[in-house]
Amino acid sequence: MIVSLLAAFSVITVIVSAKVVPKDSEECRILLGDAFIEEIAGYSEVRDNILNYVLVGDFKTKTYDELAKFVDKFGARPSGTDTLEQSIDYMIQLTRDEGIDDITTEELEVPQWTRGQEEVTMLEPRVKNIAVLGLGRSVSTPPEGVTAEVVVVNSFAQLDTFSDNDIEGKIVLYDPVFTSYGETVTYRTQGATKAAAKGAVASLVRSIAPFSINSPHTGSQNYGENVTKIPTAAITLEDADLIRRFYNRGEKVVLNIKMFSTYDTKISRNTLIDYKGTENPEKLVIVSGHIDSWDVGQGAMDDGGGLFISWAVPVILKRLNLKPKRTIRSIFWTAEELGLVGAYAYEEKHRDENHNINFIMESDEGTFAPLGLAVAGNKEARCIVAEVLKLFKSINASTLVEDDSPGSDIAVIIKTGVPGASLHNDNGKYFWFHHTEGDMMNVEDEHELDLGTAFWTAVAYIIADISADIPR
Amino acid sequence: MIVSLLAAFSVITVIVSAKVVPKDSEECRILLGDAFIEEIAGYSEVRDNILNYVLVGDFKTKTYDELAKFVDKFGARPSGTDTLEQSIDYMIQLTRDEGIDDITTEELEVPQWTRGQEEVTMLEPRVKNIAVLGLGRSVSTPPEGVTAEVVVVNSFAQLDTFSDNDIEGKIVLYDPVFTSYGETVTYRTQGATKAAAKGAVASLVRSIAPFSINSPHTGSQNYGENVTKIPTAAITLEDADLIRRFYNRGEKVVLNIKMFSTYDTKISRNTLIDYKGTENPEKLVIVSGHIDSWDVGQGAMDDGGGLFISWAVPVILKRLNLKPKRTIRSIFWTAEELGLVGAYAYEEKHRDENHNINFIMESDEGTFAPLGLAVAGNKEARCIVAEVLKLFKSINASTLVEDDSPGSDIAVIIKTGVPGASLHNDNGKYFWFHHTEGDMMNVEDEHELDLGTAFWTAVAYIIADISADIPR
User: Fold this and answer.
1) Chain A contact for B242, CB < 8 A?
2) How is this protein organized at the quaternary level (chains A, B) (predicted)?
């Protein structure tokens, strides 16, 4: 996932938001009425049917196996590449092989930022190679690189204590303490702009992560208006600490930064797979993940897992001949990592039908063991979802956390008033691997993926089938 | 640390060996006698003196701060390099600055294996860069590299199921399940030899580690007699799994391996710092760590921590004016990583005085929170150490584990019958960072290092001062 200005704070929100507690349950009972609550509880048979099929039946380990084949075959799938387009074709064929043909692709223009050679060398106080990953959309350095002294700051406030003269011609290293991703990532997304405004020739950021084995983490950043675009990159926690220790001891640190990249735009596609509703086919319950990834690792976790549990929903329902009243649409978003580009295009293109989106779901914060949902919506909407989640106590996935901007892509739709949810999962180590070469299949677990698939499918089915719409 | 044939199994031993339990305590009481046990218990004041000085007094965070300055200044210190020799000079000066002048260096010939460019590229089934670290003493490939198909095995037994024809001209990838370091490392140390014996043109090994963020782990290996020396390297857990998945699906995997290195010998030095005993200066209690490191990371954990807690022992005793009866010798071993070269030279040079070594200690398996000691020696020797360890209950460092081959360097001396011990510490994550670029100061913790320093110093002092020698 990326974090846009819009969706930036979902991780924090999850942490601070409250679970639905017994008091709320009573409120929900009054709001929903006993009959409706009983109706929802009546989906226990369907739930068992789906859980059994995925956890012990024919679909067991299918999500993991298909995801592994997919990410092994294509590897990283950055926005704008042929690889991404081929991977979209592959997913379409994989779906057709299941006898599902109601597949639409919608073209849109996407950015293509292509990483070239990247090399950071500490020249003083001693020569050392510094592991590095340039940030998305970063400009290149001149061929000989940028050589300059480093100023280390731990916050924008500390940067502001320096005069422009102090920063002019320097490299700024942001070395913030990692609190939460949502809070700390601002040094990655806005660091270059703020450093450039004070005359810096380049900026570096301590990777936005709580743990490292000398692992740099890439990610998006955006240049502000009216400032010089300076080269910008992430270095590892270890090297950031090393440079800070030198700096704090009063030793001058000089780096040479060489970074080369190209920028272009290409055509890519959002992919929509419809599993048509029997009574209200115009009404949509959307499940989704993004198919593009960063250019490091395999994008197995970000967001291969979310992609595949969403792919599995119509596949499993068709195999089990379960036909909900509303249509379930599985969307594979494109170009999420460089700014939710696919989601914005979808929102614009489908604005007229916005009222038909009953509920929208995305998994883009890991597919570790599911714990429940992070839900946006009014009180009644959350009450309905809470009742649905009660059906998943046996797999420990009954937690509802309130989150006004869940997901990444879907936040674009949710801000228009559509209720929705992202997968709430046991993702404490998500940011250890996020946007690194370590985002490979090893992060995924067969059984946890099965749990995610079963949960995602059953929840989507129930919401698409119950007698009442999710209210706005 | 490395693991030689000699010292290979200390990690396993620690895991399977038993703590000294109450039954043993009674046995010890009979062996040692109440008077001697009371004498040892009487060192509680000295213990408090040392613990206070390090944990809350003037030495607080000194170990961490000095270690950080040292590893930041020199970085990696591979055997045979000028950097290693300069780092030895630095440690001597740091000791002299404390007013300690009884310092001897002993020259010896050490190997210098210098890593050059290393690059592994998967060519089939798709092009992918494979992160790699060549293994110590590996020969180079031809300039164009070695290009061959991969055969994946998880054990030597599985390799043996292939005919020489199957392996001839291939690259063997060892992909063993990590059980313990001592058990699994054999695929790193002997893999090339066994693959070459069957006609392989190169061998790769899954990094000897239980966890990874796409981190390759280097380490030593030795070519056997009478087989072709083939290039050999470690790849990451993630890439090993990727290649195995392709292989298991029946897809042909072709790699190009380019590795270049040089091999030479140089002169290096063991460093001996003597803090003279008042009554039996000829008798030695040795504390030690190795000063050389691998060429990746900073060697902060392997073995900067062990080096500095051993450096601290005479320094603290001098500062506190504590004078034990026997001499405490702090040794900084050289060239441990390429085969305990410094230790073997010391053992040979000092063989005549072997009988004077009362007890020998090394810390080379991490300086995380100390838990006690892993002790080699006869029953009575272990009983004495167990009584000493009872003094460290307040810092949770009273555990004695029986280990017939503790430490790395000191195993060379211990096998001659000298009793000794290595630091038993909370090192569950040691092999996450071991021999990687991640072996930097971030692995170390100020307070845990203080605990290690205080424990190491007090234990050494007490053993050097008690009325009885440690029996053989």
Assistant:
1) yes
2) Homodimer. The monomeric form is inactive while the homodimer is active.
